[in-house]
Design a protein that fits this description.
This protein has 252 residues and is of the alpha/beta class. It is built from ten helices and ten strands. It binds manganese (II) ion.
């Protein structure tokens, strides 16, 4: 069964061994892919390679795991490219043990990013929120009103109550297969409205079989979601596609 209208709203295309060929592969397979980046230094090449593609979009990122004491220079570069970007990511916070020592710097940078996006008014963000959902939601509430930017929480790992709060704040959620293999992931789907769901692989950081997942593998997320909701996978894919259209229409 071939599913159409597939969407991989969070994939690191520039981290595969052959960036150009995976861009071509996604384009030929008509898979709408958000190519997130981890540093603004990656923006020019991502922007160039996706400028003329129909299905691939580049996102301008500054990954919280890469923030160090000298983040100011990176942030300035991020701001320089902002007018060229409609999509922002990967950005956010990571308070896991390996990265919590920079949480102050991460928070300052993320706050600035939200502020700049709110000022621009037309951005859609893919957000990393590991062990920091509460702070992330506070920062969004204080800096990025829902009418000033679209928020997609990628690989959400917060609590049910935090998910409900995120829904109230207007957030969308990009779901991957790893999330759907846990009980928590299933519980989350009970509180997240179906209209707020998107799909992702977060490739190459997830696997399909024994190899890094590629955007085409997002079909398995669609199939799992369809099974959970008890609907046909084609209908599920169509629903996710309308969700994305609705999100983008709010900020055009
Ligand atoms: Mn990622």
């Amino acid at each position: 069964m071939i599913l159409r209208n597939l969407i991989d709203f969070h994939c690191h295309l520039d981290l595969y061994p052959d960036f150009e060929s995976i861009v071509k592969e996604c384009e030929q397979a008509n898979i709408l892919t958000l190519a997130v980046t981890t540093t603004p230094r990656a923006w020019p090449r991502n922007h160039d390679l996706t400028l003329k593609t129909k299905y691939i979009r580049a996102a301008l990122g500054l990954h919280p795991q890469l923030i160090d004491k000298d983040y100011a220079r990176e942030l300035l570069l991020w701001e320089k490219y902002l007018p060229e970007a409609r999509y922002i990511g990967e950005v956010g916070l990571d308070a896991s043990p390996r990265f919590s020592h920079t949480i102050k710097e991460q928070t300052r940078a993320f706050e600035r990013i939200l502020h700049c996006c709110a000022k621009a008014g037309d951005k859609v963000l893919s957000i990393h929120s590991v062990r920091s959902t509460g702070i992330i939601l506070n920062l969004i509430e204080n800096n990025l009103p829902v009418d000033r930017g679209g928020i997609v929480l990628h690989w959400f790992t917060g609590s049910i109550i935090e998910a409900q709060r995120a829904v109230t704040l207007g957030c969308y959620f990009s779901i991957n297969t790893k999330m759907l293999k846990t009980k928590k992931g299933h519980d989350l789907l009970k509180v997240i409205p179906r209209e707020r769901i998107l799909t992702e692989t977060d490739g190459p950081f997830t696997e399909s079989g024994n190899t890094p997942a590629k955007p085409k593998d997002v079909a398995s997320v669609v199939n799992l979601l369809a099974e959970i909701y008890g609907i046909d996978p084609h209908i599920m894919a169509g629903a996710i596609s309308s969700n994305l259209k609705n999100l983008l229409n709010k900020y055009s």
